[in-house]
Amino acid sequence: METTALIVVDVQLGFDDPYWGPGNNPGAEERIERLVRAWEERGWPLVVVRHDSVEPRSPLRPDRPGNELKPFLRGRGAVTVSKHMHSAFHGTPDLDQWLRAQGVERVAVTGITTNHCCETTARVASDLGYDVTFVWDATRTFDRGAPDGSVVAADELMMTTRTNLADEFARVVDTETVLADLPSPAPAA
């Protein structure tokens, strides 16, 4: 992998709230933290995204404690994007503009939730011409009610996202594959 920006989407305290219901992939945040460290070791761009919800009941509202980033992300990143839409590319500052100013052509997407903001960010990145890697096991999501009243399990939603993105929008891989593909970090000066 040549220089790639790591986009960490919405890894916020509010996703630990029961409001979201049953979720999956409890190891996702540990994998995200490993990726963050690997990016920092290489001096590659790290983008932290925070969802500032405008929904009245959301734990992610800026006036609620759940809006805070998880502790391992606080104070990290070359840029923090604030958004209230699904894609990190529809926030402030303008992520596309920021990445292009850094000369970035490749992005890796991780975060919460797999089938909403992570998938949407990956799709928009692809549509904007970025080479996208979707690190599926460094994402997590929650069970979701379907229009017919049934419940779609989080694992099924994750598999659907992987299927939706594969080949057309992104290279869909796991954390170990990404880490194995990284060049050795530059020696400390």
Average per-residue pLDDT, rounded, comes to 96
Give the distance, in angstroms, between the N- and C-terminal Cα atoms. Answer: 23 Å
Strand content: 15-25%
How would you name the oligomeric state of the polypeptide chains in this document? single chain
CATH architecture group name? 3-Layer(aba) Sandwich
The neighbouring-strand order within the major sheet is 4-3-2-1-5-6-9
Poorly predicted residue ranges:
none
- Helices, by number, come to 5
Task: Note down, in words, how this protein is organized.
The two termini are 23 Å apart. The protein is globular, with a radius of gyration of 16 Å. The protein is built from five helices and nine strands, in the order E-H-E-E-E-H-E-H-E-E-E-H-E-H. With 189 residues, the protein is of the alpha/beta class. The mean pLDDT is 96. A hairpin with a 5-residue loop joins strand 7 (144-145) and strand 8.
Write the layout of secondary structure elements.
Blueprint (H helix, E strand, L loop, with lengths): L4 E5 L18 H15 L3 E6 L27 E5 L7 E2 L2 H7 L4 E7 L1 H14 L3 E10 L3 E2 L5 E2 L1 H12 L5 E3 L1 H7 L8
Parallel strand pairs: 1-2, 1-5, 2-3, 5-6, 6-9
Antiparallel strand pairs: 3-4, 7-8
Helix pairs in contact: 3-4
